[in-house]
Amino acid sequence: MSHTFDPGPEPPPTELAPVKVASNGLVCRRQSTRFRARRGARAEVQKWGRTPGPDVALQLIDVSEGGVQVRLRVAVHAKELFEVTLRDPAGDRCAQPVTAVRWSRPEPDGTVVVGLEFAHVLRPDVVGGLAGPVSPGATPDLPPDPTCRPNPA
Question: Is the entire prediction scored with pTM above 0.85?
Answer without folding.
Answer: no
